[in-house]
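Subject line: Sequence and fold of a protein, written as structure tokens
Enclosed: The protein record, placed directly beneath this head.
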Amino acid sequence: MIITIDGPAAAGKGTVSKVLAERYKLAYFDTGMIYRAVGLEMVLSGFDLSNEARALEIANHMTFEKIMALSTHKDFRSDIGGQAASKVSAITSVRQALLKMQQDFALNPVFADGTKANGVIYDGRDTGTVICPNADIKFFITASMEVRAMRRYKEFAAKGIDTTYQKVLDDMISRDKRDQERQSAPMKPAEDTIILDTSDMDADAEIKAVLHIVEQKIKSAE
């Protein structure tokens, strides 16, 4: 089974993806990690994030081992990593270079320890439109800009990251604009996707709603 979960930052994709992965014994593939890795390596190397040649070179040499190593850096999950990911992901050649790595995972999904999984949960921006357009179930999870910014601000505050709500909001507005307007694979719902607005939901309500939909889809396919 392949499930894609797309949507903007702080909409709740990661939370529900991990629950689904555990419940149905699916591998979890956070596509944003790849772009965060490329973006962060650009930042750490002192390259301008608009430098396509450098970004493409890094993308062409990116491996799962490098991604995991970079994921331990303090800025990988910070706003620095998020903004860097958004900027390099807008480069068409970088997206093309990383596409096969993402698509190939669906052919042989495995857990971190190498054991075989029953399928894969893709968490990203274009997984239902580009990476796995033939996925069994597709979700597009969203929420209002203000709600998402507050969620991310509280997340940063809990981690001790020094920022303000206004800065998080401004950065999120810029990031959404880039993701929606990029020429290659813009962030948008697939035609056959299920759209879920979590603005008025807590994590438990979101998980319950998604699980209900998945169970109904599974039953109808039997």
Notes: Residues 203-221 form the longest helix (19 residues). The chain has one domain: 2-211. The longest strand covers residues 137-142.
